[in-house]
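Table 4 source record.
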Amino acid sequence: MINAQAFVEAARCAGYTWYAGVPCSFLTPFINYVIGDDSLVYLSSANEGDAVAAAAGARLGGKQAVAMMQNSGLGNAVSPLTSLTHVFRIPLLVICTHRGAPGVQDEPQHELMGQITGQMFDTMRIPWEDFPGEEAAVADCLDRARAHCEREQRPYALVMQKGAVAAHPLSNRPATPRAATPPPGGELAAAGAPRPSRAEALERVIAGTPPGKSVVIATTGFTGRELYALADRANQLYMVGSMGCASALGLGLALARPDQHVVVVDGDGAALMRMGNFATLGAYGPPNLSHLVLDNEAHDSTGAQATVTRTVDFAAIAHAAGYADARRARDVADIDAFLARARGTGAGFLHLKIRTGAIDNLPRPTIAPPEVARRLQDHLAGRA
């Protein structure tokens, strides 16, 4: 057994100062120590996948990041671990508890995952080892993790056994309260009114996000592909998987790089898939984060099957979740005002109805995901 301080301070020396996660009783002392230190960032995520995506965004922004979770929630993190951090080669340190470990008495819901936790990491091709149980083992453990991350540019996992970390008191540090905001203004375009295309909306996004001052994160599917087709720029990242995780990735990046205006262009299907992240963005979202949902009421890139957003008021949801500025758009011109909005106390949100369909002969990006990520990092570091 070790004290939380022994690991966290050694991790700090290795560069890890940014944490996102979902609590587990095994993690309690560890999380309590991180929360109680104002010099460390702790993001309380709605689910484990969002924690991974937010940590990945922070890593793109230059922070060494840790994603923490219980193994029962490891399934929630499979998508971003396999189609975000693996595909884009984003290195993270993952700390996962081992509930239901063989030979350890635990609740029945942990039995199966307890048996296959290691196999899960093996299947995802993520090297792992037990979380160090002695202070003398911490430095070597972190050295192995760092060596893998630097060499492979992919995650490394530590599996925490019961009782690995001694108790540590909680000094709660909730997200900074937001100033009261008025209800979302404006109305969506009237039913039956002509809707703009996705390309028309993205042209406005491109015009309002100059390189050097802004970053655009485009959700998976036609959104990223159309953005690439219209203008392939170094300050853009095209999600190719991990559907629904664009907003969490953008949150991590915006927190890591307050000097950049981070614009997340989401779709209605993706927003529905990870709607819990609305509350996380409402609580933690900084003023340099703008979240735009282009809603065509369809999963357009898979054949335009209908989503259930016909009666969903995303702006009202964003307002209720704590966004500092939540708006409804009538047309693409409202994107201009939204992106030029005065930065307030927190993240901004805009909901725009668009029509289905994409530009003719829509290409797929020819630049590989790892190149997109490295190009963005070079751009942010001024090496472009």
